[in-house]
UniProtKB/TrEMBL annotation:
GO terms for cellular component: mitochondrion. It comes from Malurus elegans (Red-winged fairywren). InterPro entries: T_IF-3_C_sf, T_IF-3_N_sf, Translation_initiation_fac_3, Translation_initiation_fac_3_N. Residues 11-78 form the Translation initiation factor 3 N-terminal domain. This is IF3M factor.
Length: 129
């Protein structure tokens, strides 16, 4: 089973690395620093540290306000909702704009059935020559 990516949020004081690359709340790089220094900055400015990239040397952390973290979580949740979930099917249907009335009714019924079954449906209409 794949290890799911941990939720985006403050890491608190549990930082497993000694040296971090720190980015301030305005997105400017503060360079590499010892974790004690990063924690001191965090306390002085009332900010939280968030892990951005772990698999780089040194790992990248960003100082953020609670509001910035909340907004980023909302953005990520939206993105998550937009991507199809595993086991969810995307049904595709394409037809010409010159489709006969009874064919269109048949396809419309088919689409309605798929939607009832909670499938995502993608319809493409090609323009007839």
């Amino acid at each position: 089973r794949l290890k799911t990516k941990t939720a985006f949020g403050s890491v608190g004081r549990r930082i497993p690395y000694r040296i971090l690359h720190v980015i301030n709340q305005d997105g400017e790089s503060l360079g590499n620093m010892h974790r004690a220094e990063a924690l001191k900055l965090m306390d002085q400015h009332g900010l939280k540290l968030v892990l951005l990239r772990e698999n780089v040397e040194p790992p990248v952390y960003r100082l953020m306000t609670g509001q910035q973290i909340h907004e980023e979580q909302l953005k990520r949740a939206e993105k998550q909702k937009a991507s199809p979930k595993p086991g969810m099917y995307i049904k595709e249907l394409s037809f010409s704009s010159a489709i006969a009335k009874n064919d269109l009714e048949t396809k419309t019924k088919q689409i309605a059935q798929w939607i009832e079954k909670k499938h995502h449906v993608k319809v493409t209409i090609r323009q007839a020559k």
